[in-house]
Design goal:
The protein contains two helices and four strands. By secondary structure, the protein is of the alpha+beta class. It starts with 11 loop residues before the first helix and ends with a helix. InterPro entries: PFD_alpha_archaea (IPR011599), Prefoldin (IPR009053), Prefoldin_subunit_alpha (IPR004127).
Length: 163
């Protein structure tokens, strides 16, 4: 693990790089949060769809989604079990209650991950605030030093020319 470095020990250029890195990290976290919200919503809808099967009858006509905008007609073969995708190309057959429970657990897991991401984003946001404050201080010190040097040069410049 890297040793912590005091922000006051960093140059303005290094602080600017750290700030940019934190901003990029926060942007990525924000995008990930949107993806997690979408995933939680999809699992919620899937759970409702599986639950809906409990009230249906075998042979009842249904529309099956092939894509988000393309559906084909079909008929319910079995209303007692569902096929769940549990990973890339892996499927498990469960009873309807097991399917509903699986979707519910997935929603809870995704929401837990969202909370962890949110906590991490708050920590990074606080770090960004500290880095920006340190950078403002360093830039203020640099500007004050330049003004003092300019004032000193202006004070000594005309006197040296008269001698």
């Amino acid at each position: 693990m890297a040793e912590p470095v005091a922000l006051s020990a960093l140059s303005p250029q290094e602080l600017a790089e750290v700030r940019q890195s934190l901003q990029q990290e926060l942007q990525t976290m924000s995008q990930n949060a949107v993806t997690l919200q979408s995933t939680a919503a999809k699992f919620g809808v899937a759970g409702q769809a599986v639950e809906y099967l409990q009230d249906q009858k075998q042979g009842q006509p249904v529309l099956l989604p092939l894509t988000e905008s393309l559906y084909v007609s079909g008929a319910l073969e079995s209303v007692e079990s569902v096929l769940l995708e549990v990973g890339t190309g892996y499927y498990v057959e469960r009873d309807v209650a097991g399917g509903v429970d699986y979707c519910r657990r997935k929603v809870l897991l995704v929401k837990e991950k969202m909370e962890q991401l949110s906590q991490l984003a708050r920590e990074r946001q606080a770090m960004l605030g500290q880095v920006e404050a340190a950078l403002d201080q360093k830039l203020g010190e640099q500007q004050a030093q330049q003004q003092r040097a300019a004032a000193q040069q202006a004070a000594t410049g005309p006197a040296a020319a008269q001698s």
